[in-house]
Amino acid sequence: MTIKRAGGVVSIELFRTDVAGNRIEDLSDTFVSGSVSYREDLGGGVPMTFDMTLIKGPRLSPLEDFVSPYLTIRYDDGTQLGPVRLGVFLVTQPKVSVTQRTSTQVYTCEDLTAVARDAVFTATWKIPTGTNIASAITAILQDAGLVNVAMPDSTKVTGYNRAYPKGMTNLEAANKLCVAAGWWNVYSDVHGVIRTQPMRLLTNSTAALTITDDDYINTIEHTPTQGQVGNVVVVRRERSDQPTLYAIRKNTDVDSPISIPNVGREILYTGAPIDAEDAEDQSDVDTLADRLIEEARSYERVVSLTIPPDMALIGKQHQVAMLDIKTDDGFDFYGRYWVREWSCGLSAKDAPLKLTLARLVRLGRGEDVSQ
Asked: Left (φ > 0), alpha (ψ -120 to 50) or beta: where does 36 sit?
C-alpha cells in the first residue's frame, strides 16, 4: 500500500458546534494552525486533543462551546482527500497574547469524553443485577450531557448489584462497566459519537496500512521505554461482595527480547496488580490479562516516525500497522505494531502525521532473528 503522493494543497476548516456536533458558526477565517492528537494508553483519561491557534479576537466561550476541524488535501494528480471531520472538541481556556493591534489565542481542546470526566454523580448511582451493560453505560454518559452515544450491540447483563458513590465521575463509572463487558474504555470518534469496542488481541488484527522505506519522512527513532516494559501481568478483581479473582500472565517466549528467559528475571508490568474491580467473572479477568501481557511485551521496541496524512489511522482507535523498513546501517524495524499515539499537524502548507508505534510481532529479519 503506497501512502505517499506527490504534492498537494492543504485546506483546514473550523466550525463552532454544539455537543451533538451540529455546525453553528464558521470560524475558518480565524484559524492559523493546530494539531489533532491521540494517545491510546492514558488509563481512562481523555484520549484525543485538539491544539489550535486562532486570531481576530475571542469568538468562543471556554468550557461551554465545542469546535470541529475539517481537513481537505487536493493532490497534484487530481485526487482529493476530504473534507474529513477530525473530531468534536470541548473548548478549554486559552492562552492569550495581545498587542495593540492583534490578539492570538492558543487552545488545548479535549474530545467529548472530557464532558463525562467533568460530570460527577450527585447521589449514589445504582445498577441492579440483570441490567443490560450497554444500556447502563449509555444512561451514565447521557446523564453527563452527552447526546450521541453508540455502544456495541450486546445482550450481556450485570451479574451482581453495583452502587457507584456520590462524587464518582461519569467517565470512571462508564469505564468500569466497560471492564464488566470486556470492552475498551469509551472514546469519542471523529464525528463526536461516544463509542467503545470489544477487547481483542491486536496481534491477530488486520493491519490498517503498511509503511515501507519510501513512506516515512526524514528520520525514524527507537524510543527507550524504561518504566513501561514488563514480562508479568497480574489482574485482580477484589470486592467485598464477590469472590476474589486473579489472572497471571507471564512472557516466557524466547523470541521476545524482554521475556523472563531472556532477561533472567520477572518484571511486573505497571509495577502493581491491575485493578479489575468491576469484572463480571473469571473470563473478563482473563481477557484483560491477555490483552495487557500483549501490550507489555510490545514495549520491547517503540518507534516514532512521520508519514503523509492517511485516514486509515487519523481518528481511529486500536489500530495496527505493518512496518517494512530497513536502514543502510542495518537497523530493521520489520514487524506488526499497534498505534499507541498519532498526531496530525494542521497548517496551510502540510498535514504531517506523526506516529508512535509499539511492536506486537517481530518477523524475524536482520537484527530481529532470534538468537
From this structure: beta
264 Rama class: left (phi>0) / alpha (psi -120 to 50) / beta: left
Helix axes 170-181, 282-298, angle to 10 degrees: 100
% of the chain beyond a pLDDT of 70: 92
Q: Is it the case that residue 126 has pLDDT exceeding 70? A: yes
Q: How many other CB atoms are there within 10 angstroms of residue 5's CB atom?
A: 13
Q: 324 exposed, middle or buried (CB, 10 Å; 0-12, 13-18, 19+)? A: middle
pLDDT in the model for residue 18: 97
Q: What is the mean pLDDT of residues 281-291?
A: 93
Contact partners, residue 139, CB within 8 Å, separation at least 6: none
End-to-end CA distance of the chain: 31
Please determine, for residue 70, whether its predicted confidence score (pLDDT) is greater than 80.
yes
Residue 311 to residue 344: CA distance in whole angstroms: 10
Nearest Cα to 7, choosing from 83, 73, 69, 66?
A: 73
Residue 349: per-residue pLDDT? 66
Helices (H), 186-250: none
Angstrom CA distances, 47 to 39, 102, 137, 304, 370, stand at 5, 33, 18, 18, 35
- Count CB neighbours of 344 within 10 A: 23
Least confident of 98-102, 187-191, 270-274, 278-282: 98-102
Helix (H) or strand (E) holding 171: helix 170-181
